[in-house]
Amino acid sequence: MVDDIANSTEQRLHQLRRENNVLRERVADLEALVQRDPLTNIGNRRSFDRGLKTELERTLRSGLPTGLILLDVDGLKGINDSRGHAAGDACLKSLARVLGAKVRRLDSIHRIGGDEFAIVLSGCSTEASDAVAHRLEATPLVFNHSDEMFVFSVSVGFASVDASGVSVLNSVGKPVLVSPVCATHEDSLAQLSANLLAAADEALYLNKAQKLQP
Asked: Do 96 and 16 lie in a common domain?
């Protein structure tokens, strides 16, 4: 009788462990799902915020730099208006595939807005981020829609952060500190994230404005 109870208890424990493992796997799958952009199958804004925070925490601990590239599609509205939103979607998916092939596996790619993408570059200085950005801008970009190939381009902005703060490149290609690190860890993390995004976004804006000049 005692042996029967012990065996029954052990079987029940095994069953509960299996059910618990299944639940953990489902939670992990759901967590991964809510961090993916359904159109491009890359990270979304939620995964970007989380990934950038992780990299900035590493920067504050080790002093190693983190690079951030922001880019968007030139004239996506024109593509949507002239060819339809299916063409615009094909353009975005093509860009996501190209970015995935052009960056390292330890870097992360995210779609953070309609046509805006972000790349978090682990251990990348301002000069290294500049090199990646130029390589991306120089890459031929095409997408297929209704068995027809279309060429498109992107605009890119970048900045980096290390233990001293956020840096950008000046007009002669030298790193310039634009925002120092704050005193406390939590303040530094929030401020660095905001300042890094602002610096990369400003660089993206200047890039696009330069393209519009006659």
From this structure: no
